[in-house]
């Protein structure tokens, strides 16, 4: 599993039985969801959130504060992610996870989802970043053969959905992921499977959080003047010569880059690239509608053009 190689904290003191109980609680709740008829699944989402909150309440009474959120809540979120990585990001049931998280915010302790951003962003970090973003281009970083790409993409998809729902509000992680997928000339050096997975990850963010990301581009969202990590958080890859941060110029570069990648990818990755291009075109294109009306007793048509999606 993904979590065998990435721990949230070296001081991981959650007792084994607590970890097992936490994973079992999530697993039991989601298993019930999977066995329910599709038409009735949405009705279960509030119940799932309530069950999870109730199961976790006894553990949270012995809370130990840590530097980011709490150690215990971080472990709880780590267990939650065990369920997330069990579902490939392309499966429809993956939409359940962000909706359950949204429902959890209705409970007092979970209102601000303590520890979730830290855990999710840490676990969904691009493997290339883990193994060395400053590697020599002539000696590219290697990704272990057993690196769980599917699990990584499931976590990216969850974060992308939460970003689109404006539950995850950090703009840096999506931008880094898109940058590594679409703006880095060293992509091909890591092998076909991982090359395509990075493009998939970039497309997940653009598709799942499209309106949010497009708004950031229109606003020109960028790092503050005193941000020491500005280059890392908002910088661009070597293929994009423009300004740092979110810009419409960068948005259009991504669109062009995806078109360039079409002949280089295959299968599900090609399908995702095509879908992403189509959706990006819809965001910027005006919506044209033909209205059938009656004028002076005679039928006629009016062609109406509306602004883009937002």
TrEMBL record:
InterPro entries in the record: OpdG, Oxopyrrolidines_Biosynth-assoc
UniProt superkingdom: Eukaryota
Protein name: Uncharacterized protein
């Amino acid at each position: 599993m993904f979590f065998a190689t990435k721990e949230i904290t070296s001081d991981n003191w959650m007792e084994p039985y607590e970890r097992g109980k936490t994973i079992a609680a999530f697993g039991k709740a989601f298993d019930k969801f999977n066995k329910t008829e599709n038409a009735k699944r949405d009705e279960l989402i509030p119940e799932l959130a309530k069950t999870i909150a109730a199961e976790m309440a006894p553990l949270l009474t012995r809370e130990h504060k840590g530097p980011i959120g709490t150690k215990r809540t971080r472990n709880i979120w780590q267990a939650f992610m065990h369920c997330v990585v069990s579902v490939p990001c392309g499966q429809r049931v993956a939409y359940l996870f962000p909706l359950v998280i949204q429902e959890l915010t209705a409970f007092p302790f979970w209102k601000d989802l303590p520890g979730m951003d830290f855990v999710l962003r840490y676990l969904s970090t691009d493997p290339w970043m883990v193994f060395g973003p400053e590697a020599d281009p002539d000696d590219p970083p290697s990704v272990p053969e057993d690196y769980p790409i599917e699990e990584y993409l499931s976590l990216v998809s969850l974060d992308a959905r939460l970003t689109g729902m404006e539950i995850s509000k950090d703009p840096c992680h999506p931008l880094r992921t898109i940058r590594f997928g679409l703006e880095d000339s060293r992509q091909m050096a890591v092998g076909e499977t991982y090359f395509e997975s990075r493009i998939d990850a970039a497309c997940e963010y653009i598709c799942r959080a499209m309106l949010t990301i497009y708004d950031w581009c229109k606003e020109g969202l960028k790092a503050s003047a005193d941000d020491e990590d500005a280059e890392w958080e908002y910088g661009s890859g070597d293929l994009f010569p423009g300004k740092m941060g979110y810009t419409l110029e960068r948005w259009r570069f991504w669109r062009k880059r995806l078109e360039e990648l079409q002949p280089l990818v295959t299968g599900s990755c090609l399908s995702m690239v095509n879908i992403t291009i189509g959706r990006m075109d819809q965001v910027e294109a005006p919506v044209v509608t033909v209205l059938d009306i009656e004028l002076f007793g005679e039928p006629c048509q009016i062609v109406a053009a509306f602004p883009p999606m937002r």
